Structure formats: structure tokens, C-alpha cells
Amino acid sequence: MSFRSYLRDRGLPVAIVLIGLATGAAQLLYWWLAPAPKVSEFVGPPRSGYTLTNFQLWSYDVDGLPSFEMVAPHLERRENDESLYINTPDFTLPSNEAGVPPWLGKSLYAWVDKSGTLLKLQGPVYMHRAAFAQTDAAEMHTSDVTAWPKENRMVTDAPAHMVQGPRTLNGVGMRANLNTNHLELFDEVTGSFPPRPKKSQAAPRPAGPGTAHPAAGTGQAG
User: What ranges does the record give for the region Disordered, renumbered to this chain (predicted)?
Assistant: First the structure.
């Protein structure tokens, strides 16, 4: 059988094979001649979804109670994960307890996740709470804090310095629960706890009729 007869009798399969070979050759030629993909020259953080200036932010927990509040000059929302990047915020962590004042603070930067359950305070962090009832005013100096504001918990691996009235505490690494006033320092802990002033004794009431007086001083046998 001649080659021409072979092609005539099997025209369709041969055509399919030839088309496949031509397509593969064309693809190889394109890969060889096509220019290299352009490398992105952009350097920096992900693109912002939006920015705000001189804003105020409120976040609430599942029960509708205030979780935290922020005031800052600049905020950027990221498109990729909808997180918030904030510059020089002043923040408030409410106690949600009657008669107990909130913690007020400030940091260099802050980051808040999409759900508002995770807050990172970056750079130096300062917090203070006013005195109330029989509790002295308190303040805290630390840095790079990770906080869960809806649970009023926070941790840091950085040095921390706390002052409450005449008492001081210092350490490296801290874990705190602001709801239960529980504080734990991890390493290099030092502190100063001067004795509390004694309560003044109440003045004795004047004796009425039929009331016995305790003797003044120490009695001695005659």
C-alpha cells in the first residue's frame, strides 16, 4: 500500500495527530519567544481598602457591652484581611462594672483584626486607671502588648512597670486579666510594698448612766 493510499484511507486520524503536533509546536515556540513575565516593582504593605483621619472607633462584645474605644489621627483598612492599622491611638478599655473606672491608654501603633477580638498595641504602651472606692490609682508602662479586649486580657514579653499608690512592681513578661485584677510577671520580678497606714482608732464615746468605763492605763496591785 502506498503512503498516499494510507493517508487517504485514514485521513481523519492522521489529521487529528497532525493538528496536535502543530499545536504543541506552536506552544513551545511561544514559550521560547515570549518575553519574561514582568516583575512587580511595588514594595510596601498591602493596598488599603480605605483610610480615615481623626476618627473615633467603638467595638462591642456579643452581649452589646463596650469592648474598647479608640481615637486616633490615622487608620488604614487592608483589603486582603480587612484588618485595621492605626497610628498613635488613645484607647479605652471599659470595666463594665458599676463604680469601676476604665483603663485609659495610648500606644505608638495598633492593629485590630477583622472581628475586633484581637488587638495588638505596638511600641511603647502606657495605661492608667483612676482611683475608686478604697482602691488607689494605677498605671502601667510596657510595650508590644497583645490584648483580647472582649475578654479584658493582655500579655507581653516586654519589660513591664506597674505602680498603684505607694506600691510598685517590675518584671519581664506579663499576663493580666483586668476583669479579675489578676497580674502575673514571668521573670526578673522586683517590687516595693510599703506597709499600709493603720486605721485611726475611733474616739471613745462618752459613758451614759449605768455604763462601765475601762480603766485608763495598766492596773497595779496595791
Answer: 189-222
